């Protein structure tokens, strides 16, 4: 009886997910697509929880439903009224995308069938689970992310950093001059500290339960974005330059830890067993802070000040040189 | 016995959620839809939290669930207020 209920629930989730994905891609209005995308993130978080991956469910809930929602809605505000003018190559592009999606779908099905039916059953996860006790933490996901595959996490931080750099280069800083409702302002007055405490809890609990640096960092970013939207202007309080430098802290600390381990003749990011717990805490704290600031900057946007003036002055200089 | 009471509570919560969704689909105006959604969903969540907390039994988890319920109530009230405020402003500007 229980099995049938779970199967019904899983099938229901599957159909809801595919249905929402279909609707998101096929609606004409941007607003409806954005709201459906946020709902898609929520259903995906439930599916991760159902697949017994609570760390992924936490990350998907915070980033997919929270931060992506904020980014998409503010981008939609910039979109204004643009008519859905169909370009000449739109039909070709649609067919190309459909073809690529079908190829990807077939490849995923083949890979899944191979993994479930044809493999010999030996999984790398068993080695990881066996070695977790020596890694300094007891949550196997955190052990893999921050100890066994710490190099991958370092590169992930670099990817986040690079993408935020790209976002920062796109346009001027987002202005927050609208009048803030008093109810929102007063709620954020007590909600933002709660969010910061919960993010610290997620960081600390990641050692022995679902949690970790990415979840805590994105919840801290959600707190900062909420504050920014509600009249507490972080970019003016802290200074945008300081925010940009704080983005680098995570990668810097991670790399320095790795180089220190290299110096102690172990190897880059090879932790010694007795130092592992301390190093993981240090790296995770720096990564949390850095991820939070990076996601907040992705929301704030903003080319460096004086960029337009510099560009204009260099143009006038070069035109004067070519004229003289 | 306790399990059946908890199951009943969860079913009542589900009924309130369904009622809220029906209200979202069938009510004519934005404001009445907001009203139905926020009130019915919060009461539904309260009943579901009651049922699940009874089933769970661990005091730490019960406190966490009650905190989650309070936070969702606060967030949904403020966001409904903001949506209604924005719609009212837009209606006044259009007149």
Concise synopsis of the structure shown:
Chain A has 324 residues and is mainly α. Chain A is built from 13 helices and no strands.
Q: Could you describe the 3D structure shown?
A:
The complex is a heterodimer of chains A (324) and B (95). With 324 residues, chain A is mainly α. Chain A has 13 helices and no strands. Chain A has helices at 2-26, 30-50, 54-79, 90-118, 124-131, 140-148, 150-168, 182-205, 213-229, 234-238, 240-263, 276-300, 307-323. In chain A, helix 3 runs parallel beside helix 9 and helix 7 (150-168) packs antiparallel against helix 11. The longest helix of chain A has 29 residues, at 90-118. Chain A starts with a helix and ends with a helix. Chain B is mainly alpha-helical and 95 residues long. Chain B has 3 helices and no strands. Chain B is elongated and about 60 Å long. The mean pLDDT of chain B is 91. Chain A binds chain B through residues 181, 183-184, 187, 191, 194, and chain B through 71, 74-75, 78, 81-82, 85.
Question: How are the SSEs placed, and which strands pair?
Answer:
The complex is a heterodimer of chains A (324) and B (95).
Chain A: H1 2-26, H2 30-50, H3 54-79, H4 90-118, H5 124-131, H6 140-148, H7 150-168, H8 182-205, H9 213-229, H10 234-238, H11 240-263, H12 276-300, H13 307-323
Chain B: H1 2-26, H2 30-56, H3 59-94
């Amino acid at each position: 009886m229980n099995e049938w209920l779970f199967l019904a629930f899983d099938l229901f989730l599957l159909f809801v997910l595919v249905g929402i994905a279909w609707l998101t891609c096929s609606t004409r209005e941007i607003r409806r697509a954005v709201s459906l995308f946020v709902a898609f993130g929520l259903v995906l978080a439930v599916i991760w929880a159902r697949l017994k991956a609570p760390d992924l469910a936490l990350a998907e809930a915070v980033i997919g439903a929270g931060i992506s929602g904020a980014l998409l809605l503010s981008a939609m505000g910039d979109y204004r009224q643009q008519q859905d003018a169909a370009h000449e190559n739109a039909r070709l592009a649609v067919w190309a995308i459909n073809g690529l999606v079908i190829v990807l779908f077939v490849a995923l099905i083949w890979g899944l069938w191979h993994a479930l039916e044809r493999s010999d059953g030996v999984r790398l996860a068993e080695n990881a689970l066996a070695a977790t006790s020596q890694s300094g933490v007891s949550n196997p996901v955190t052990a893999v992310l921050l100890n066994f595959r710490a190099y991958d996490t370092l590169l992930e931080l670099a990817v986040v950093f690079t993408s935020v750099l790209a976002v920062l280069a796109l346009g001027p800083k987002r202005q927050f001059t609208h009048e803030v409702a008093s109810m929102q302002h007063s709620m954020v007055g007590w909600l933002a500290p709660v969010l910061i405490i919960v993010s610290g809890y997620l960081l600390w609990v990641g050692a022995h339960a679902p949690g970790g640096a990415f979840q805590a960092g994105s919840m801290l970013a959600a707190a900062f974005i909420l504050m920014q939207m509600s009249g507490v202007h972080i970019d003016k309080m802290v200074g945008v330059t300081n925010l940009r430098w704080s983005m680098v802290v995570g990668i810097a600390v991670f790399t320095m830890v790795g180089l220190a381990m290299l110096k102690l003749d172990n190897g880059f990011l090879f932790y010694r067993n007795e130092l592992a717990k301390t190093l993981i805490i240090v790296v995770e704290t720096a990564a949390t802070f850095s991820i939070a600031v990076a996601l907040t900057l992705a929301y704030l946007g903003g080319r460096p000040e004086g960029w337009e003036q510099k560009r204009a002055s260099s143009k006038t200089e070069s035109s004067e040189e070519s004229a003289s | 016995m306790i399990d059946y009471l908890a199951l009943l509570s969860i079913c009542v919560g589900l009924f309130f959620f369904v009622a809220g969704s029906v209200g979202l689909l069938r009510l004519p105006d934005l404001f009445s839809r907001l009203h139905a959604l926020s009130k019915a969903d919060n009461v539904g969540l309260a009943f579901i939290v009651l049922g699940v907390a009874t089933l769970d039994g661990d005091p730490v988890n019960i406190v966490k669930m009650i905190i989650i319920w309070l936070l969702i109530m606060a967030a949904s009230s403020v966001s409904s207020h903001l949506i209604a405020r924005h719609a009212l402003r837009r209606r006044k500007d259009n007149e």
